[in-house]
Amino acid sequence: MLKNPSNIVLIGMPGSGKSTAGIILAKLTSLDFVDTDVLIQTSQGRILQDIVDTEGYMALREIEERVLLKLDCSNHVIATGGSAVYSHAAMMHLKSNAVAVFLNVELPVLESRIHDFATRGLAKRPDQSIEDLFEERFVLYTKYADVTIESSDFTQEEVCEDIISSLPTGWGNVRRHRNRR
Fold it and tell me: Against a cut of 0.85, is the pTM above it?
């Protein structure tokens, strides 16, 4: 982990709350917010599922990698797509100025949150189940995470408090919260 990173990068499975927690975390830390799935959609002029349907899941991963490698920002909370971790180059680029936080959510909780698995615009093989995807990605999330936040049983606000409590000492002007665990 860097000594003085200025960004917080959220990684984790679809349905782990990266976008929602990211917005709340940005407010709590007075940082800007960017959702890389939105950047992908804006750059392509279409939704993620359309990319998967017309060009395939590997095309989405390649587009995502290009978008992430071009991302150049400071003092941001960055919510990544769940497949960002497939690109080592993109993750190293993001982590060059960030603390990477893995929002770890148990599979049954993810299954209860994701009702549109087949049409959500996921960079996954057509035959891949959510269980397979979870197992495949979990290894990558833990590989790139500087901090892991267990977030299955907590509100987004509690998750954000845990993230803030887990940041390195002296990180930014973020106020410290009492850890509730």
Answer: yes
Dihedral angle computed from the Cα positions of residues 28, 159, 87 and 168, in that order, rounded to the nearest 10 degrees: 60
User: Going from the N-terminus, what domains does the chain have, and what CATH number goes with each?
Assistant: 7-166 (3.40.50.300)
Type of residue numbered 94: L
Token output for 135: 């197992």
3-state helix, strand, coil in the chain (%, to 5): 50, 15, 35
Residue written as tokens 């495949």?
136
Q: For the segment 30-65, what is each residue's pLDDT rounded down to a tens digit?
A: 999 999 999 999 999 999 999 999 999 999 999 999
Alpha-carbon distance 178 to 181, whole Å? 9
